[in-house]
Design goal:
Chain lengths: ~300, ~425
């Protein structure tokens, strides 16, 4: 869908993007991650053709990115904003027409979305008369009303209560199912785990990680397991594993042990060793969260 | 292009539909007409109430010769000066004119009253007494009264402009007035509409709508859309004002002048018999003003006014747009506004102190050609007549000027609108300007 090749963006005294390349496959939900000031917004602005890169190229479905692609992209900026004094309906019509829809198409599609999101009664209201959450909803609809093939969402959940966040999550998944590719930039790692199938991590203007979410998580597995048991382990010092953490006895007589299995052994070896000694409730692998990977990568 | 049109439409209609626009558009011409009508009405009616003047004429020179007018009723008094003074003290409505016995041409008369007599009253009495005295002195010198009656010169100057097209009447007072008015109007509208552009851009920037919009259109389209949209609001307002003012003035002038000419006609025979100069109504300032205004070439001034408004507006609003893009709030605009408004203010002051008195001097000509000053300077010069070649050079350089400022402004604008929370300096602006695409 989008192929980003060697993008460099230089500002007067700092380089916002240094030779960044990304592949965003069609139909994916792509998480664009990175700490504040890493260069995410610069990259998003370049994709939206708000600014131009100093070097590098972007291909949209194989074509070099050009102004005709603007109508195929929907962009929800992190800094939200609409005209405060303008009526919602009029405002939506204006923005949709700026994206290239005809007035009648725009009208039809806005009505459809307003009905779907239960916003019909807002049409004649001014933006400043709505609550912040409602404004965010309006802005979300403004982003997707022209059926974009590529949707770029920068922190889409900020300002939403859990109920509305759920509604928006479902809309995002539904849009994705219908074929839209989604670039999703956020600091909320749990939504990344929930939604994204691919991610890229940008840090200090460079891409330091890119791939399928599952592959990345797998590559960060390090044979760490969590064991829940009752009873007493006679000899906890063994060459089979090293203990990382051992909880004290809990009310239910269950203790938790975090252990790292040594390279030449497997879970079976560990179980064989422990079964005669204690009653085992659970043994599960600890797969690192995106949160942990993010922090680990950025701190190094 | 389609998108620019959409932006223009939004900018235009969101302003024209506002109540304040309608109020301003219809109230201003009504105020102008109201003032105009008031001035004419006052000129026709004169003072509100006649003053009674008791005349103690010890010289006997003026007895029966002072003519009552709308504002003065003369009454010969037999009282002594002391008694008259007493009367003045007891009655505040009493005015006593005391003329000493052997009055000569440079002597002083006295007006005694509790309230100060109006300047109009004093002038009228002075004119009448001087005239009577002059006639008396001429008679004393042996010139008979019939000769005197037949000699009544009335010289006035009418100014005529002579061009290849022929000659036409003109009036420099009216020209000055129209030039002033046009210059003030241009100055004010450049400031008002220019800062509207600036505030619109600051609003878009602080509301963060800018990023949504320029992910759909190019920054240049947005900037031009806003400038053109607001410019059209200005033109709409002016056109409505012109149409309203012209039609209302036409009605007002017709009604008032018709009355006026009838009174003049009916007073004519009396005026000819009168010894004391002309009938004051003929010299009425209202008539002079109206007939002088009719000599001002509005047919060419109005289109040129609109043209210079548009040119000056495009030139300055681009600069205002650049300022708007560079700041985050109205309060930060000061340091950038100063160099922009300086040439406007300079020309504005020069117009009143210099150009109006020397419309054809070298400095005036330059000021009316340099695009940053020409919209105001040319307005002042126009009613005095400006050679075609100067007009052409001035308009061409104005067009070149706004292309230049628009180009400079758009380069600053495209970077500025995306810079949040950064205090911009002139150095910064130059840096933004030189960023490549």
């Amino acid at each position: 869908m989008l192929s980003i090749q060697g993008i460099v963006k230089q500002y007067a005294n700092h380089r916002a993007l240094n030779n960044v390349s990304l592949e965003i496959p069609a139909g994916s939900i792509f998480g664009l991650l990175g700490p504040n000031g890493a260069g995410k917004t610069s990259l998003i602005r370049i994709i939206n053709q708000i600014t131009a890169p100093d070097s590098g190229e972007i291909f949209f479905k194989g074509e070099k990115l050009n102004p005709s692609h603007i109508s195929k992209i929907g962009y929800l900026p992190e800094e939200r904003g609409l005209y405060k004094k303008m009526e919602i309906g009029e405002q939506m019509l204006y923005l949709a027409q700026l994206k290239g829809l005809s007035k009648s198409d725009a009208n039809r599609k806005i009505k459809f979305w307003f009905e779907k999101m239960e916003m019909q009664s807002w049409w004649k209201k001014k933006l400043e008369d709505l609550s912040k959450g409602m404004q965010q909803k309006v802005q979300f609809v403004a982003t997707i009303v022209h059926d974009p093939e590529l949707i770029i969402l920068d922190e889409p959940f900020s300002g939403f209560d859990p109920v509305n966040a759920e509604i928006i999550t479902n809309e995002i998944l539904e849009l994705n199912k219908k074929g839209s590719t989604i670039i999703f930039s956020t600091h909320r790692m749990e939504s990344v785990e929930q939604l994204c199938d691919r991610i890229a991590l940008i840090h200090k203007s460079e891409k330091i990680l890119e791939g399928r979410l599952q592959d990345i998580k797998n590559s960060y597995r390090n044979n760490t397991f969590k064991l829940s048991y009752s009873g007493k382990i006679e000899c906890i010092e063994t060459k089979l594993f090293t203990v990382i953490d051992h909880s004290p006895l809990s009310n239910e007589n269950i203790r938790h042990l975090i252990l790292k299995i040594s390279d030449q052994f497997s879970t079976n070896d560990v179980l064989q060793y422990l079964l005669p000694q204690v009653h085992i409730h659970e043994l599960s692998e600890i797969i690192p969260s995106i949160h942990d990977i993010f922090i680990q990568k950025v701190k190094n | 292009m389609k998108k620019t049109l959409l932006i223009i439409k939004r900018e235009y209609f969101s302003r024209v539909k506002k109540k304040s626009f309608l109020i301003l558009t219809f109230l201003v011409p009504l105020l102008i007409i109201g003032m105009y009508a008031l001035i004419i009405a006052l000129a026709i009616k004169g003072g509100d109430k006649a003053v009674n003047v008791e005349v103690i004429d010890q010289s006997k020179l003026f007895e029966g010769k002072l003519k009552n007018s709308k504002s003065i009723n003369f009454k010969t008094s037999k009282l002594s000066l002391a008694a008259a003074k007493q009367q003045v003290i007891t009655d505040e409505e009493t005015f006593v004119l005391y003329i000493p016995e052997h009055i000569k041409s440079n002597d002083k008369m006295e007006m005694l009253s509790q309230k100060k007599a109006g300047i109009g009253v004093i002038n009228d009495i002075e004119n009448q007494t001087n005239e009577i005295m002059r006639i008396q002195l001429l008679k004393d010198a042996g010139i008979n009264s019939q000769t005197l009656d037949s000699i009544k010169p009335n010289l006035t100057i009418t100014t005529k402009e002579i061009t290849i097209d022929g000659e036409k009447d003109s009036s420099s007072v009216a020209a000055m007035g129209v030039g002033f008015a046009a210059a003030i109007l241009i100055y004010m509208s450049l400031m008002i509409y220019g800062s509207q552009v600036m505030r619109g851009i600051i609003e878009e920037k602080t509301n963060r709508i800018i990023e949504v919009v320029i992910s759909s259109v190019r920054p240049f389209q947005l900037m031009m859309g806003k400038i053109i949209g607001i410019g059209l609001v200005g033109l709409t307002q002016f056109l409505l004002w012109i149409i309203l003012s012209l039609s209302l003035t036409a009605i007002a002038t017709n009604v008032l002048l018709k009355d006026k000419f009838e009174t003049i006609k009916s007073e004519m025979p009396g005026a000819q018999k009168s010894n004391i100069g002309q009938n004051p109504a003929v010299n009425s300032p209202a008539i002079t003003a109206i007939s002088a205004l009719q000599t001002v070439p509005f047919n060419s001034i109005i289109p040129l006014f609109l043209m210079y408004f548009l040119g000056g507006y495009l030139l300055y609003s681009a600069l205002f747009a650049a300022v708007g893009s560079a700041v985050d709030s109205d309060t930060e605009t000061q340091q950038f506004m100063f160099p922009i408004t300086l040439p406007l203010l300079f020309t504005y002051i020069m117009s009143f102190s210099y150009i109006i008195n020397n419309p054809d001097s070298t400095l005036s000509i330059w000021l009316s050609i340099i695009p940053f000053t020409s919209p105001i300077a040319m307005m002042v010069r126009l009613p005095f007549g400006v050679p075609d070649w100067q007009l052409a050079v001035s308009i061409l350089s104005l067009i070149a000027g706004f292309f230049l400022t628009t180009w400079v402004a758009s380069r600053i604008y495209r970077i500025g609108i995306l810079m949040y929370g950064k205090k911009a300096s002139f150095k910064e602006l130059i840096k933004w300007f030189s960023y490549k695409e």
